[in-house]
Amino acid sequence: MWVHACVLCLYTISCQGDADLQNVFNRLEAIGYQVGVRLTERHASNLSRFADQMECVKFICRDLWSLMFKKQADNLKTNHKVTR
């Protein structure tokens, strides 16, 4: 959280208007996306490929979520319908 606040502060100091502020938010979103992709790739690199979408969702809700937030995801609900 502290790092996020510092980065946000550094980026917003140079803002002159709404357009600059939107650029800052876009840049921060891109940084967050890249961090998420790298974290996911690093954590999943030693796992075998996911057989289906449900295994991917389970990986996110069980492994990745607990890695990022230090707690389990609250709910993993499925409709148990197979769509093909």
Residues in helix, %: 55-70%
Radius of gyration: 18 Å
Shape: elongated
Report strand %: under 5%
- Which regions contain 5 or more consecutive residues with pLDDT less than 50? none
Intertermini distance = 41 Å
Structural class: mainly alpha
Helix-strand pattern, N to C? HHH
Q: Give the count of helical stretches.
A: 3
Mean pLDDT: 80
How many independent structural domains? 2
Q: Can you describe what's shown?
A:
This protein has 84 residues and is mostly helical. The chain is built from three helices and no strands. Helix 1 packs antiparallel against helix 2. The protein is elongated and about 50 Å long.
Which helices and strands appear, and what pairs or packs with what?
Elements: H1 2-13, H2 18-44, H3 53-69
Helix pairs in contact: 1-2
